[in-house]
Amino acid sequence: MNMKTVLFFCFVCANIITFVYADIDPIELLEKTTEEMFQDNEAGEENVEFIEALEHLKEVPLNINSVSKNSLEQLYFLSNEQIDAIIRYRNDYGRIIGAHELSYIPFLDEKTVAAIEPYIYFGSEEDKKWNILTALKKGKHSALFRYGQVLRKSKAYKEKIYAGNPSALLARYNLKFSDNLKAGFALEKDAGEKNFDFFSGYVSFGKSENSVFREWIVGTYKTSFGYGLGMGSGGIFGSISNPDISVRPSAGIRPYSSGGETGFFSGTALRINPTPQTEISLFYGNNLLDAAAEASEQDSVNEIYDVATSTGYHRTSKEIAKRKAIRRQVAGIAIEHYFKRFRLGFQVNYTFFDENIKQEIKLYNRYNYLPSEVLQASIYYQWLCKQVNFFGEIASVLKPVAGKSVAEKPVAGKTEKLSIAFLQGLQWNVNDRFKMIFYYRYYPRNYASYYASAPGRSSNSTNEKGFNFRASLVLYKNWKMTFQTDHYSRFWFSYPEKLPYAGHDYKVELGNYDKKITFYTYYRYRIENEIQTHRLRLHFSYSPSELWTFATRIELNNFSKGVLAYQEIKYSFKRAPLRVSARISLFDTKGYDNRIYAYESDVLYGFSIPALYDRGTRFYFLATYKPLRWLSFWLRYAHTFMDNRYSFGSGNDLIEGRYKPEIKAQVRVTW
Questions:
Q1: Cis? peptide before 455, omega within 30° of 0
Q2: What is the pLDDT of residues 15-29, one digit of tens each?
Q3: Which of 74, 294, 305, 390 counts the most CB atoms within 10 A of its CB?
């Protein structure tokens, strides 16, 4: 396939669609955000779990008549004013009886009501008297099993390097009985592993919003406070800069039962409300992490550990030897107080390892390596002043000398350092037609945290400063224009040994969203250390009826250096509980540096956003079948065929040949 073929395909796809337009779906909005996250810094799966959380809310919706403000904030597309209006209306008028009543609440228009309907229900207050038998009988249960596999063997399987077979397996169970009892667990086996080697699970006990005791979690959980600068485990990296997603402090402590093997704590967490305006969160985590051990040069009795970024894989003898080799413990407290229009929060956490940590000092981490003991704290706030939302966070990390900090080349005078970073921003919803947000970030070169995930160019929130501005304007009826700019610079060398540099990023997007079709186009220009990048996208999505949906995209990366075109079709059978979707993508890029990401439909709670590069074709087919109210099936097949490359992957994962087929199957039972 040559460039002419790709461009011809683009032309055909572009002419399939007529100019009729549709309301943008909250999931689609967050998928666009996810694509940007990956294109900028290859965010990991743990940073896109907000999409899984929204999908889960469709299965276990929120009771609009008893849900707390913090829980409502899981609906990221709701503004702060809208959430406050719902709570005030409920307090003033009592139980909300249906969706039609929501339209009477200030700040809620028809589009907003339609957006939140899949995630809520209108129940009465739950009975506070309950027991385990009642919860098991009246609760909502779901059990899920997933199988996935690449259907061609890599080098590791041919030479029997990996301990297990190439199948990837996931088993998951969840129970919810109002806010009184929630429980769940997940078992996961990665491809190449011999058995299920990862477990996450929790039990959560809670009471209603008016109780002092709010929630107690035993097991695995995630924490995220403020805006991710101090404690951002599992937070939404980067979405703070989207003017269509409301900016608010993170949701705090959340139970966790998924197959992702990083970004969570194992232990216990407690939320209490000593007053209706004050919430206190206490947490303790005790995790065994993968690490490589070796004898210390100073003392042959002691061992030091190299804690690298965990992949979660335990396939080879070396990977298995690293499994759960070192213990990390963390203890912390967070306090939030709500004033009438002001929220103030404070969190502090102390992390320590049970063994010495060795870290090879490179040029890029000379000032921000993390020792075995870290004390970290931050203060964050949110002030709503009419249509203006002021927000910010200031964080510091103290790296103590006492204890266990070990480095190959210690930096004189840098073993004990108080580093301070801050984020300050403003979101202004001028009216229904114009919204804007800007923030300034300052993350010094000596700032580092095990859990930070604040907005910025780097995923670990260090060694940069920058100013970001975004605005959206409704031009005429449903025509909307969005503009963004980001100006940033590095204080010091960055990975991999890149010189300090400055960058400028600009993006202009124009779209029209009505009832039947979504159309948007954007152009993005970035110049970083005198290297220019151009990106152009045209996207159409057409739904002539409730049964059919067509989607077309054309994307150029650095003009002719990267081209992607795809056509997607979705169809829901009228006389059968079956929905199918299929996409074919053609791509032609000048190597990995010009790769393009495109979010793909997957099984429920699944995730697929491959990096497309070189020249080839990719297609996938997804079928969802629900023969009974309590039973659902998913089947997904994806196939990548390369024109100019005769292998996939490298090392043990090398697959020889020009094609790579993948299959995924899932079954889910609810009762």
A1: no
A2: 333 333 334 566 666
A3: 305
